[in-house]
Specification:
mainly alpha; elongated; transcription cis-regulatory region binding; nucleus; zinc; transcription; Zn2Cys6_DnaBD
Length: about 500
């Protein structure tokens, strides 16, 4: 029988080589390192290559090869272009995500406050506001980004993703500072409403983020900016500045209440500036101020009295004591029913509740802080008033914290009650109630301020001391507010 003709494998046929026809694969393919396709079915021409491996190159165009310096400059410019595009895209995405987060997670928490009446400061971030983002400096838009990231960090009960969020937060915080410095370097920016709004927004972001030693510096800078622009009355006449000035005044006044008497910001104020503050707050027509203007004015007068008592002024102690007694009498004789009668009938009960809370808290602050600087005596009469205010305030706060309409307006009052029950003779279950309420408020508001207040009070409770200045031996500022309405300001 004649031998059958030799068959060539498909690879040898493709390469026009003589195949040795060994089965199942030829030896020639094995020696050349090629996978032999065999003899039966013709394989496809597609061939898998390892990642990064190529079998052919395009012909390079003929011409003069650019120098290494030119190539380096070209690569550097391309890199800068790519980075700038990436940064712009990142900021734009961050602003959009911040708006979505605010509308989904923060705005719903603020909506119950409308139960007190119309509030111009409670509104979602609409597409119309988003379109204005390109027209304002980065320090305004990125402050909103910082606020939302900080809110998310404090809302997370576990540590998952908190590290990544914190890194992102501090990166945007640096961008805000850079934008503020650029605004300060501009002649027009130094006196613009936008700059004032940027500093206020950054102050709130700092307080929300954690314990900041710079909050007093921001307030001093705002005070100097007001003086450069002609004073408080002139600045308040500018469109959209009232919410910003109100936030500034809250920071100054409430910050002084929780600072040592020897280190109050109001000590650097002139007499005419204090009068301007009182007039501005009394003339404020915003329907959402939960503290009556008359009682807020008494807080300012108490701060002034504490500062004078801690200084070396020539006023005698008897004069200061008379002023302190008059302040306390005015607080206790305040007619909250008359003030609440001006509010809508549907929300009058909530207004009465908040007004009585402020009245009791301010009366306690008057007694405790002025006794700490030896202005008011520690008598049986004072102790009776303090015990009555403490019992009533504790009852009212428990009621207010159960309502979403009023629970965000009682942070300062909780702190005042915490100082009163910190005395070793008055310690008890109220301390646990205050601590739990502050921790829950910090989680709900998404701010460190209530948590910082809880830490300060806990340290005071364990110290065994009992005076107001023993609790606040360094300046503190506790604000639950995390943002301010900047929608009405004029863009220079």
């Amino acid at each position: 029988m004649a031998d059958s003709p030799k068959r060539h494998c498909w690879e040898c046929l493709r390469r026009c080589l003589v195949c040795d026809s060994t089965t199942p694969t030829c030896t020639r393919c094995a020696r050349s390192g090629t996978a032999c396709p065999g003899y039966d079915e013709k394989p496809r021409r597609l061939k898998w290559l390892a990642p990064g491996r190529v079998t052919s190159h395009r012909r390079r165009p003929k011409g003069t090869r650019p120098s290494g310096k030119v190539e380096a400059e070209s690569e550097e410019s391309s890199r800068k272009l790519d980075l700038s595009r990436f940064k712009m895209r990142t900021n734009a995405c961050a602003i959009f995500e911040a708006a979505q987060y605010f509308n989904a997670c923060i705005h719903p928490e603020l909506l119950p406050m409308l139960g007190l009446g119309p509030n111009p400061g409670v509104y979602p971030i609409s597409p119309a506001l988003m379109q204005l983002a390109d027209a304002v400096p980065d320090h305004l838009t990125l402050s909103v980004v910082c606020m939302t990231i900080s809110h998310r960090i404090h809302r997370l009960r576990c540590d998952a993703n908190r590290r990544d969020l914190a890194e992102k937060l501090y990166r945007f915080r640096g961008d805000v500072l850079l934008s503020l410095n650029q605004e300060l370097s501009l002649r027009s920016g130094r006196r613009g409403d936008v700059l004032f709004a940027g500093i206020v927004s950054f102050l709130l972001a700092e307080i929300q983020l954690g314990p900041s030693p710079n909050w007093r510096c921001h307030l001093v800078g705002l005070r100097d900016l007001i003086r450069l622009r002609g004073g408080l009355q002139k600045v308040s006449s500018r469109k959209g500045m009232t919410p910003l000035l109100h936030c500034y005044l809250l920071g100054i006044v409430l910050g002084d209440t929780t600072s040592p008497a020897s280190n109050l910001a109001i000590a650097a104020w002139r007499h005419d500036e204090i009068e301007s503050v009182l007039n501005l707050y009394n003339a404020d027509t915003n329907p959402c101020r939960t503290c009556p203007p008359q009682l807020f004015a008494e807080i300012i007068k108490i701060n002034c009295l504490r500062s004078r008592a801690a200084s070396s002024e020539s006023a005698t102690r008897s004069d200061l004591a008379d002023e302190g007694h008059q302040i306390l009498i005015r607080i206790l004789s305040f007619r909250r029913e008359n003030w609440a009668a001006l509010k809508p009938s549907s929300s009058r009960a909530n207004w009465l509740l908040l007004c009585e809370i402020h009245e009791c808290a301010i009366a306690l602050y008057c007694i405790l802080s002025l006794q700490s600087v030896a202005v008011l005596p520690d008598t049986i009469e004072m102790s009776t008033i303090a015990r009555s205010c403490t019992s009533r305030l504790s009852q009212l706060l428990r009621q207010a914290l159960t309502s979403p309409i009023t629970r965000l307006s009682v942070l300062w009052s909780l702190v005042v009650l915490g100082v009163e029950v910190g005395h070793p003779l008055r310690a008890g279950a109220t301390q646990t109630f205050i601590k739990d309420a502050l921790l829950e408020m910090g989680h709900r508001v998404g701010s460190f301020a209530p948590l910082a207040a809880a830490e300060v009070l806990q340290r005071f409770w364990t110290s065994g001391k009992g005076s107001w200045d023993d609790c606040f031996d360094q300046p503190h500022l506790f604000l639950a507010q995390t943002a301010v309405d900047v929608s009405g300001i004029s863009i220079d």
